[in-house]
Specification:
Layout lengths: L18 H12 L4 H9 L19 H7 L2 H8 L11 H12 L6 H5 L13 E2 L1 H11 L6 H4 L14 E2 L30 H20 L7 H14 L7 H15 L12 H12 L8 H12 L2 H23 L5 H5 L19 H12 L4 H8 L3 H10 L1 H29 L5 H7 L1 H10 L1 H8 L15 H21 L6 H7 L3 H4 L7 H8 L3
Antiparallel strand pairs: 1-2
Helix pairs in contact: 9-13, 10-14, 11-12, 16-19, 17-18, 19-21, 20-21, 21-22, 23-26
Length: 530
């Protein structure tokens, strides 16, 4: 028998199984001792490494596997977390991501997706539900990694509602890549306190909507400028700034504080100022593409779900299309369409203005010079508006004085309005004030620019900071104190101390130690642990 001609059998995907889990089950089924053996069998000799979140080399997958698992596009759409990033990305970026997953290297695609700069973490650890593990073993004879658990931001199991547990394997600080299936001993112990009902509800809500967004995939594309307008309209409709901008900042910060203790939401704003900066960033014209979790956090606060947000988005898009259509359409003769007589019709009688002489004329001119509204003057002296306009055309000095008066009153009114809003929102930046009173801002910008610039210079800038000046000694002290507390708590619980446990319990510890010239005290303390 020619053993070389024997085709290896391939397993079929289980329900809600991710591609990495499928390959891991195949690795166990084949009985390969090394991860590289399975890599070579699936993708050929040129594949040396792999990742579980964004699988690569899909174009190199052998034909036998493709016949059972599907083509490249089907694998990406059905068995990976990639579709979560599609709706808020440009079609070009979506195609770049797909091409990168087909090739041996991802390149800079994570940066373009906002994964690197989104502050939600570029690492997507494997996650599992302990109840699902037991149920899968009973039903299928094997536990596997569920795709619905792997999306970034999903912290609770959509079936059992329990907090998911992260794997200690295939992490930045673990030893190399390996194919593996979920088992209790490779899962990290939960360190966060048991959440109350309100926190669980918030975590389940965002997990459910992350899955809803992922289902959209590339079938729906959100235009960034329109998305920002939808957020603005929602803030206006909900009257979030009815009292003060601080109130909106406090409310959003309170919502974020429910999610913030749980990765990957550690960077969400929990203070008033950072919450206002977050809102300001999301409601202005975007210069790039944000991480989908950034959008979802604001969407759930404003709309409570993805579906209401989509309805609002479609409404704004339709309104924009109608506006462009109306702008480019030919003006309609309303008089002809309505059956009304036109100006040239002989049956239309035009009222003649009254003749004005002597004291009446002086009183009218005096009122007009003081800036009184034309309609008010016409009603007070029982004359027509055409007579008022005729007097103004004939007396340029009154017309000029009137314009000055009106301008002075308008300026005074808008300056007072601006000052009142600024006093009621002392920590708001110019962008926040502009959002509160856009018409006032526009008028002052066009007609009273020097005064406006002077007022803006006194306002807070509204920027959290770019962290240029960093006190590394203080950071080292704080990290060392945090490490000591963590070690003390583990020792009190009679836990065996491992560096991998410390890296999990302190998420930014490993990344902080990547540069060897930083954190000397922390390194010295960590070196005492085997």
């Amino acid at each position: 028998m020619n053993t070389a001609a024997i085709t290896k059998p391939y397993l079929r995907p289980l329900g809600d199984e991710c591609f990495f889990s499928l390959c891991s089950r195949q690795h166990v089924f084949w009985g390969n001792g090394l991860s590289s053996d399975t890599l070579i069998s699936l993708f050929g000799d040129s594949t040396k490494a792999y990742s579980h979140d964004f699988p690569r080399c899909l174009s190199l997958l052998n034909d036998d596997a493709k016949s059972v698992w599907g083509g490249t596009d089907e694998i990406i759409q059905s068995y990976t977390i990639a579709p979560l990033f599609f709706p808020f990305q440009s079609p070009n970026h979506v195609q770049e991501l797909k091409r990168a997953m087909e090739s041996p290297r991802l390149g800079s695609v994570k940066y373009k997706l906002g994964v690197i700069t989104g502050r939600f973490g570029g690492e997507h650890p494997l996650k599992a539900c302990t109840t699902c593990i037991a149920a899968d073993r009973k039903l299928h004879g094997v536990a596997y990694w569920h795709l619905s658990h792997q999306f970034p931001g999903v912290t609770t199991c959509p079936v059992h509602g329990r907090l998911l547990v992260e794997s200690k394997k295939n992490r930045q600080w673990s030893r190399g890549f390996q194919w593996l299936l979920p088992e209790e001993h490779i899962l990290a112990k939960t360190v966060n306190p048991e959440p109350d009902a309100q926190v669980i509800e918030a975590l389940q809500n965002i997990s459910t909507n992350i899955l809803a967004l992922a289902k959209l995939g590339s079938s729906f594309h959100f235009e960034p400028g329109t998305v920002a307008q939808v957020y603005k309209d929602a803030i206006t409709n909900l009257k979030l700034f009815e009292h003060t901008a601080e109130d909106a900042g406090d409310r959003f910060a309170a919502y974020c504080s429910l999610l913030q203790p749980y990765p990957p939401f550690l960077s969400l704003p929990c203070s008033r100022q950072s919450a206002l900066s977050f809102i300001s960033q999301m409601t202005r014209k975007p210069r790039g593409y944000f991480h989908p979790l950034k959008h979802l956090t604001l969407i759930l606060w404003l709309f409570q779900g993805v579906e209401p947000f989509i309805e609002a988005y479609v409404h704004v898009m339709a309104r924009s299309i109608r506006f462009r259509t109306d702008k480019n359409s030919t003006p309609i003769n309303l008089e002809a369409n309505a059956g009304l007589p036109s100006k040239s019709s002989p049956n239309l009688q035009t009222l003649k203005p009254k003749k004005i002489f002597g004291k009446l004329k002086s009183k009218i001119l005096r009122s007009l010079a003081n800036g009184s509204p034309k309609k008010t003057v016409a009603a007070e002296y029982n004359v027509s508006l055409s007579s008022i306009n005729r007097l103004l055309r004939r007396d340029n000095s009154v017309k000029e004085r009137r314009e000055v008066k009106i301008q002075d009153r308008s300026r005074e009114y808008r300056r007072n309005k601006w000052s009142t809003i600024v006093q009621s929102n002392p920590s708001a930046s110019a962008k926040i004030i502009k959002q509160l009173i856009p018409s006032i801002y526009i008028w002052l910008y066009r007609n009273d620019r020097s005064w406006l610039d002077n007022q803006i210079s006194r306002l807070p800038r509204g920027r959290v900071g770019n962290f240029v000046k960093i006190d590394w000694n203080t950071r080292d002290e704080n990290m060392c104190a945090l490490l000591e507390r963590t070690i003390s708590s583990l020792s009190a619980n009679c836990e065996t101390l491992k560096k991998s446990d410390l890296y999990y319990l302190i998420p930014n510890l490993f990344s902080a130690l990547e540069k060897k010239s930083r954190y000397p005290k922390t390194r010295k303390l960590l070196s005492k642990i085997g």
